[in-house]
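Shipment paperwork, digital attachment
Item: protein structure file
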Amino acid sequence: MQRKKLPIGIQTFAKIRGGDYYYVDKTALALKLIDAGSHYFLSRPRRFGKSLFLDTLAELFEGNESLFRGLQCHGRWDWTQRYPVIRLSFGAGRLSKAEGLQEHIQASLDDNAVRLNVSLEPPTQSPHLRFRQLIQQAHAQHGQRVVVLVDEYDKPILDNLTEPAIARQMRDGLRDLYSVIKDNDAHIRFAFLTGVSKFSKVSIFSGLNNLNDITIDASYSAICGYTDADVDTVFAPELPGLDRQQIRAWYNGYNWTGTSVYNPFDLLLLFDRARVPALLVRDRHADIFDRRAGPARHLHARSGAAWQRMPRCYSAASMSITSPPRRCCGRPAI
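Attachment content:
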């Protein structure tokens, strides 16, 4: 099997499918979600593939059939149906004022309106009212119910946890926005929200209590991340010269009551560093490669000092939840 490019940091489905990149097929799980329900919430750590999965859903609902040829969903999806997709993301930048949040939401609504060819009231109107208008007009314009995808829904709050007053303002603004999703159920075909944490239903989700939280649903444990089978098949060309058991021991530590998974970003960096000549490796992966062993590039056990330097997980979304408990290791979630 020939080596492909490593999709490090790429969150765009079309870019991966259009280039010579490795791709782990998650489309069967996407179809399972769509067939089983319509409103979902998923919490996973940062850099775990949430944005790529949302982009995959967007391309699927928009009917971009050519991108899915050869994937599990291709023969099981009606490509004659195309749905208007509204996408909101709070992943870029840091919003430190309530006014900044409002401006960000208004700009996102305007971008979606242009792409969907609908007209909205001027931004002087409240964001949640314009969001409602966007959903209803997109439905009317395209003759299909709307798909709503929200990425990093909680980031404006998490970025301001050290400033409780600002965090509460962010929470209130987002709560008003997200409540529109429930109130416009008749116009919505599918809704999916992602983040790294889950706030209680009495706060940000008080107006959106109809979401199916699949964070620790065993059947969706592998919805983001790479499984052992993925590593052994999709990434087989990257394995020669590496100690497979050590990779499993140090990188396969995430579990949400189902199939264990690897953090995609960390694993891709591991493979990338394995391609670099030994003398050039000077980063956080250096302590897991035995460069003195020569070209074989075997992994070695971490020393106590190396373990102390190892990043830990800090949010509930990052913890391994199994029975019996498994070790959790990976990048900090927030």
